Amino acid sequence: LLGASARNFVHAAGDIATFAPVSVASRGAAVKAKRDPERPKRPLSAWLRYLAEYRGQNKTMEAKKVMKAAAAEWKGLHELRKAPFQSSYEAEKKKYDEAFKAYTDSGKLAAWKRDPEKPTKPLIAFLRFSAEVRKQNPQVKMTEQSKLAATQWKALSPEAKAPYEQKAAVEAKTWKEAMEKYKASGKEAAFKEKTGRDVPDKLKAKKAAKEAQLKEKERMAAKKAKETEMKLRMKARADVKKAKEAEKKTKAKETEM
User: Fold this and answer.
1) 95-122 residues labelled b (16+ CB within 10 A) or e (exposed)
2) How much is the pLDDT for 16?
3) Rg of the Cα trace of the chain?
4) How far apart are CA 54 and CA 217, in angstroms?
5) CA 20 to CA 6: how far, in whole Å?
6) pTM score over 0.70
């Protein structure tokens, strides 16, 4: 029911609409991940329901004027008049919340954000040490734990740091090997394509192709210019040689006379 212009407005606290400008990103130049088709859709707010009704009753009115007029009427609308829109929204919102919780609990949300088959990058040496510091100081605030861990890590001798660094190095090697297999299997590419995360790679490849094409054109132009210059030099040399020969012949004739 709502046009593109209506979707560019955001419902604010159930009252009046505030304009949310469409960025260049949302117009297609943008890199935006796809939406999981299994993810429950959030219901329209009371305001947007009213806007849809108002738009239907004022089809001949310009989009900008419809939005402005509807916002003004909604702001001054009696609560009893708003109630049907609000109750419809709340009923659907309750169902949405339940569906979204089930969707999240199923692991589908997390699986859409990050491929569950992608190897998990191991912790670096310092973060391993920090985890121990946090366990040993649960009463300390998180920010203070980080400062404490940084201070203690800085004071450790190379020998004391070695166990953390060695374990991190071993796991990092294993992770790199696993990542290579993961990428080679095509799973990474499949996940990116499924979720729309392949768009940056495609844009990057397209940009690289254009740059390569431009460089090739520049290279060919430079080559052509060099060839032209060589031809001109050769012609100039030939002209000089020809002129010298003509001069030599002229002198020879003068001598004979």
Assistant:
1) ebeeeeeebeeeeeeeebeebeeeeeeb
2) 33
3) 36
4) 57
5) 10
6) no
